[in-house]
Amino acid sequence: MIKVRREGDLYIINAGTDLSGNVIMWTTIYYYNGIVIDSGCINAASEIINAIESIGDVKAVLITHHHEDHVGAAPLFRDRGYKIYASYRTVEILRNPPVIPKYRQLVWGQPMPVEAEPINHKIRVGDLDIDVYNAPGHSPDHVIYKIRDMLFTGDLIGSLKPKIAYYGEDYLEILNTVENTVLKLDFSRILGGHITASREDIKGFTKYLIDLKNRIMDLYRQGKSIEEITNKLLSKVPEKVIMMETVSEGEWRRSYLIQSLLGLKHNK
C-alpha cells in the first residue's frame, strides 16, 4: 500500500505492507528532481516503483542504510536499469543481506541481494551536488544526504522523544552524530524514514536525550538496576511501544534505550 503527496518538487511516498486493508508500519521514500532517497520495502516494491515512474525519470536511487524498509525495492529499481548508490559498508551488506526475523518479513519483507555503487562524500546527479555524511548510531553503515536545504536522514532519528530502542542501536552515538554533524549543517528540515522535523525540533531531540541520559545516570549511581530504571522512567508509554516489545522477538525494548544511554551493551 502506498500514499503519495507533493510539496513543490518534492514527492513523499509512504509505503507499507497491505494486511487486509491495514498497514502496521509505514516507511517513507522521497523523490526529488529524478533522485529517489531510499527504495522502501519489498512487499510494496511494485507499487512504489510504478508510482515513482509515473512522477518522472529516475536518475539515481540513494540508500541511507541496509535495513529492509529502506532497501527492499532496490532490486526492482536495479532490474529496470536504475543505478543504486550507497556507502561502502552498505554496498557489502546489500550483496548478501541477512535473513531477518519472521515478524519483519511480515511487516516489510525479506530483502534480496542487489548490487549498488559505492559513494564517498559527494555525488553529482544531473545538475545537483549531493553531500554525503557518515551518520552512525541507528546502524554502523548509516549515511545521510544533503540536497540543497534538505537533509535526508533515513532512520538516524526515528522519534523526537524515543521511548524504545532497537537491539544494537547506539543512542550515545546518535547523540554525537546529531550534535557534531547534523546540527553543524545548514538545512531547513530533516526528511527521515519515519519523521520529518525542523532544526528546532532536532535541538529539542538532543535536549530530550541529554535530560533522559542525566536522569538515567543519577538512578544508576544510586544502585538502581536496568529494570528498575526502565520501570521508573519508561513505564507510561504509547501502546505502539508495548506492541513493538511484544511482537519483535526481543529486537525492540525500552531497556535497550536505558542501556544505550549508559554506554552498556544490550542484553536480550
Describe this structure in words.
The chain is of the alpha/beta class. The chain folds into 2 domains: 1-156, Metallo-beta-lactamase, Chain A (4-Layer Sandwich); 160-186 and 199-268, no CATH class. The protein contains 10 helices and 15 strands. It has helices spanning 45-55, 68-71, 74-79, 88-95, 102-107, 171-180, 199-221, 226-233, 239-247, 254-262, and strands at 2-7, 10-15, 27-32, 35-37, 60-62, 84-86, 117-118, 122-125, 128-134, 143-147, 150-154, 165-166, 189-192, 196-198, 252-253. The strands form 3 sheets. Strands 1-2-3-4-5-6-7 form a 7-stranded mixed sheet. It has a 6-stranded mixed sheet with strand order 8-9-10-11-13-14. Strands 12-15 form a two-stranded antiparallel ribbon. Strand 9 and strand 10 (143-147) form a beta hairpin. Helix 6 packs antiparallel against helix 7 (199-221). It starts with a strand and ends in a 6-residue tail after the last helix.
Features of the shown structure:
268 residues, alpha/beta, Metallo-beta-lactamase, Chain A, 2 domains, 7-stranded mixed beta sheet, 6-stranded mixed beta sheet, 10 helices, 15 strands, 35% helix
What is the CATH architecture assignment of the largest domain? 4-Layer Sandwich
Element-level helix/strand string: EEEEHEHHEHHEEEEEEHEEHHHEH
Low-confidence stretches: none
CATH topology of the largest domain: Metallo-beta-lactamase, Chain A
Residue share in β-strands = 15-25%
In order across it, which strands form the biggest sheet? 1-2-3-4-5-6-7
SS field, number of helical segments? 10
Residue share in helices? Answer: 25-40%
State the end-to-end CA separation.
Answer: 33 Å
Q: What is the CATH domain class of the largest domain? A: Alpha Beta
> What is the CATH homologous superfamily assignment of the largest domain?
Ribonuclease Z/Hydroxyacylglutathione hydrolase-like
Tell me the Rg in angstroms.
18 Å
- Classify the secondary structure makeup into a structural class: alpha/beta
Major sheet: 7 strands, mixed
